[in-house]
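Schema walkthrough. Field components (list of strings):
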Amino acid sequence: MGLIDYLGLAAVQHALIAATLVAIISGLIGPFVITRRAAFAVHGVAELSFTGAVAGLVWANDPVLGALLGSLVVASAIGLLGVRESERDAAIGVTLAFGLGVGVFLLGAYHRNASAATNILFGQIFGVSNAQLVLLLVVAAGVLITMGLLYRPLLFASVDPEVAEARGVPVRFAGMAFLFVLALTVTEAAQVVGTLLVLSLAITPAAAAHRLSARPAVVTALSVLFALIASDGGLIVSLEAVQVKSSVFITAFSFAIYVIARVAGGRRRVWRRRPATE
Amino acid sequence: MADDPTVRLRGARLRFGERDLWTGLELDVAPGEFLAVLGPNGSGKTSLLKVLLGLRHLTAGTVEVCGKRPTRGSAAVGYIPQQRAFDRDAPLRGRDLVRLGLDGHRWGTGLPNRQARARVDRAIDEVGASAYADAPLGLLSGGEQQRLRIAQALLGDPRVLLCDEPLLSLDIAHQHATSTLIDARRRAANTSVLFVTHEINPVLPMVDRVLYLAGAKWAIGSPDEVMTSDRLSELYGSDVDVLRVRGRIVVIGTPDAAHGDVDGAHHHHAVGDDHERDHPPGEHRHGVQSWV
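Field assembly_structure (string):
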């Protein structure tokens, strides 16, 4: 079978749609993850989506639904425990440790399908059902709308919280809303690249974008673009290499983009500094 | 109307836990007036600004800003915080920071808008920051960042400008540039300035009146009236000496317990009275500097 034949398959089309949706929302939240130093929150939520997914498998035979509901629980826990920024990482660590323990316990109780756990950890994009695709679409639309509304005040609150508060931005509310958006996005991304590799879509593209521009809109656009290239590109290449999981290519593409951006962006930063010197 | 006070406090009291920060505070700030707010750490200087920003409520008494109860995010009030360096990789340029002062509190993404852009350009031009407004914010120096913060605060044409230690951690040249900009603005636009500071000397030529907060008490008046040994000794409840040296004011003997530090680092080193006040380790000023 050639590439064109593969693209005619419903499973591959579903996978491409899922990869595209996930790339868009991951690329969108990425710059805020970096500005708000929330990389550990991404990692924590991603690993805990394993627990949610296993719970979903055990009780409803639906890992995606389980992971999504679980992520909301996790976001609430992190938000409630880590009210102050200095407590946040500790709160994530506490939640992460306990949640993973629960996940391991649940996995011990689950015997039906041995590869299900591997798929959760490393991603299985080709098994997306119609119902899951619809769910993904709804979540992605929700994330897009919320981020659209939240964008300006969240940017203000992220870079300059003191002045933002003085100007009437609901700083805490914006932070909490972003945490929920992050949890949903990360859980969706975990379906594509797996919980262990989520950072390659939620952080790496944004980190690359940060090297290339300091304009908020450009950084966001580049971040989404890079996430799309990595996600869809990695998926398509993996069609030709059936024995390798698509997440391998996705993470590799994502990393390659970052390396290129770093090399290209280093020079640009030096060049940009010049007009600033007095 | 035009001469009505922009800030008015009556019988204002603010309690923090078990302790009164200040009580019975009566204050009228006139349009175009430059009021320096002095006092040791923990005397409620920043809390006063928070009350005027609508972020804190008085324990007792009334407060009005431009004739109304302060509300969060009021366009009548501009706010300049302490200089605190932005992240090197902050994903915004100088002009983006200024623009946030115009509409950063609104929901949505915002669209390119020629009128808004022109306003931002004008504000940046007024503070002399045009040369580096397009550079990444995180790569600018503290003084450059502070100019942009002033532009941001002035963008909405506030009638009251609240400044919380805007000179802290700036070198002397940038302290001068920053305070001169603020002074020029209040003269040109008749903006009231409330300027919280540890160190009065950089702004002494501009100050109309001083509000001195200490030991749950307060004093107000011209610098000559307030910055005297008698008045400050009364406020602190201990012997405090106020000296005038080469046109500068030096305060000696504010109690350690209150982390008293009126004249600031540059100054008291110059005068050589370090031994008068041993700053305990981890004291406020050092804590702030480690932030930067």
